[in-house]
Design a protein that fits this description.
By secondary structure, the chain is α/β, with parallel strands linked by helices. The protein folds into 2 domains: 152 residues, Alpha/beta knot, CATH 3.40.1280.10; 37 residues, tRNA(m1g37)methyltransferase, domain 2 (Trp Operon Repressor, Chain A). The chain contains 8 helices and 12 strands. A hairpin with a 2-residue loop joins β10 and β11. The protein starts with a strand and ends with a strand. The structure holds S-adenosylmethionine. S-adenosylmethionine (SAM) binds next to β5 and β7.
Length: 218
């Protein structure tokens, strides 16, 4: 069973996602176990402080190292071989091939969700992978972590209903996007489903689909 843990100041953000659709099904079928750690629980002093001002000046606050180290150590107690993944716009761009590789690997993952202006750089000494979901800045690492976790979990064995569907999805061969698809009715508001898809001629359908698969940019 894949163990996936999250360290976040807002763990409640994951409730809906982990209780819905494939994420829920994956847990029910024993393919994955989720555990969320509230970073606030590891905060310092009576106010459970987790952030502080940056040395050298600058706007905003940074996540302090002590609570982050304590949270990662607690997560490692539960899963000692887990890899630690830091959500950061500086990280490697997330790709379908990485989702596939991580879904096939034996290890679990601990996702650290940053907040505010970022984190004390010393946390990087605990981290195995730094990952970005794209060249834009979000308010926190929770949405990136949800995106990445979803892309991994749906590929775990037995989670997707039609096993073949993952193999023909966009990016699954590293470069093409899925062909257009249609369902009933065959005509809707004057828009018709291409004749070839109604023909029942499998070779021609396959050819049409190949011709209508797009090349991805990167
Ligand atoms: N000051 C940082 C910078 O300029 O790179 C941005 C900090 S952002 C407001 C707060 C946190 O959100 C980050 O530490 C990171 O954990 C997360 N985050 C924001 N954008 C992200 C992205 N594109 N990919 C992954 N994580 C992201």
């Amino acid at each position: 069973m894949k163990k996936i843990q999250v360290i976040s100041l807002f763990p409640e953000m994951f409730d809906g996602v982990f209780r819905t659709s494939m994420m829920w099904k994956a847990q029910k079928e024993g393919a994955v176990e989720f555990r969320c750690h509230n970073l606030r629980d590891y905060g310092i002093g009576p106010r459970q402080q987790v952030d502080d001002t940056p040395y050298g000046g600058g706007d905003g606050m940074l996540l302090k190292p002590e609570p982050l180290f304590a949270a990662v150590e607690a997560a490692k107690e539960y899963d000692p071989t887990a890899k630690v993944v830091l959500m950061t716009p500086r990280g490697a761009r997330w790709k379908q091939a990485t989702a596939q590789a991580w879904s096939e690997s034996e290890v679990g993952y601990i996702f650290i969700c940053g907040r505010y202006e970022g984190y004390d750089e010393r946390i990087v000494s605990l981290v195995n992978e730094q990952v970005s979901v794209g060249d834009y800045v979000l308010t926190g690492g929770e949405l990136p972590a949800m995106t990445i976790i979803d892309s991994i979990v749906r590929l775990l064995p037995g989670v997707l209903g039609g096993e073949a569907s993952a193999e023909i999805e966009s990016f699954s061969d590293g470069e093409t996007l899925e062909f257009p698809q249609y369902t009933k009715p065959a005509e809707f508001r004057g828009m018709k489903v291409p004749d070839v898809l109604l023909s029942g001629h499998h070779a021609q359908i396959q050819k049409w689909r190949q011709e209508h698969s797009l090349k991805a940019d990167s």
